[in-house]
Amino acid sequence: MHELGIVFYIIRDVKKAAQENGVEHVSAVVMNIGEVSTIIPEYLTDCWRWAADKEEMLKGCELKIEPIPAVTHCDGCGKDYPTVAHGKKCPHCGSEQTWLLRGNEVEIKEIVVPQNK
Amino acid sequence: MENVKIIEIKKSVFEDNDRAADALRGELKKKGVFLLNLMSSPGSGKTTTLIQTINRLKDKIRIAVMEADIDSDVDAIKIKEATGVESIQLHTGGMCHLDAEMTEQGLSNLQFTMHNSQCPDLVILENVGNLVCPAEFDTGAVKNAMILSVPEGHDKPLKYPLMFSICDVVVINKMDVLPYFDFDMEKCKEYIHMRNPKATVIPICARTGEGVDVFANWLLKEVENWKE
């Protein structure tokens, strides 16, 4: 359900970008999805299939997901570590003065457009 | 193989909404209208808390309420009957959250905002009962509040980190049933502050009214600050 709401946003942005570029049909949309973005990739692609096929411009268009691993930075010791394995607490020094460096992305990276010769 | 062209977009899905939300906040600032986005799970007591809070504030400031639900208008009617303030129902059409655009549309349907001199001081948006999606979409509200009820458990901040990290105030409701649940208040506060060190935590019981004054005073102060 949450993924479907996101899909509606993706469709809106993709249609806008396609129109700006004079594109009539999009064959693939590539997403960057962060590991801790709370998006479940399979749900996103399922919702995408259902919703995209209702749009003339996006019929059969594939949603490709490029995951971005989550990395947290520790202000205590200055090191980075994988977020999912260790959470808020730095595995190097035990500090909790840490913040997410990346892994929260829900981003449209690019669209793929078929070319007629 | 088919020739393809790749068009780079590099754009967050939330970007347009974030921009619309900032614009809406700017507009509200000009008009001196404070918008509170109230979120929680279904059944945490949002509507009862609102009724209690509004009845404590309605003689001091002008208040309007927007109830967002997937369907039905029971909440909007309940608020209107119990408080007498203007209360409208927004339907999200199946969506699990409200975004800035829907919020703006809702505001334009309030009788109050049509006449500038009669702008409400406070508009409360009761978001769809859900701890995931509403946290991702900025509604344009000045402050975010959430209600966590005792039966839901003290570990919710661990399970729904984003919701707790964006909330300025967390109201712990249904304090009257505390003896019957394994709800650890100290742990709960610790978990909330792990996600958001600045969050204000206010324990209440909406049914008996206990603690509601504290929340009402917090809200009144925020409304006054916004008007400065």
Could you explain how this protein is built, in words?
The complex is a heterodimer of chains A (117) and B (228). Chain A is built from 3 helices and 6 strands. Chain A has 117 residues and is α+β, with helices and mostly antiparallel strands. The N and C termini of chain A lie far apart (40 Å). The mean pLDDT of chain A is 93. With 228 residues, chain B is an alpha/beta fold. Chain B has a domain of 149 residues: Rossmann fold (3-Layer(aba) Sandwich), CATH 3.40.50. A 7-stranded parallel β-sheet of chain B has the order 4-3-5-2-6-7-8, sandwiched between helices. In chain B, helix 9 links the parallel strand 7 and strand 8. The longest helix of chain B is centred in the N-terminal third of the chain and has 17 residues. The radius of gyration of chain B is 18 Å and the shape is globular. Classes of the chains: A alpha+beta (117), B alpha/beta (228). Strand 6 of chain A pairs antiparallel with strand 1 of chain B.
Defining key terms:
heterodimer, A: alpha+beta, hypothetical protein PF0899 fold, 3-stranded mixed β-sheet, 3-stranded antiparallel β-sheet, 3 helices, B: 228 residues, alpha/beta, 7-stranded parallel β-sheet, globular
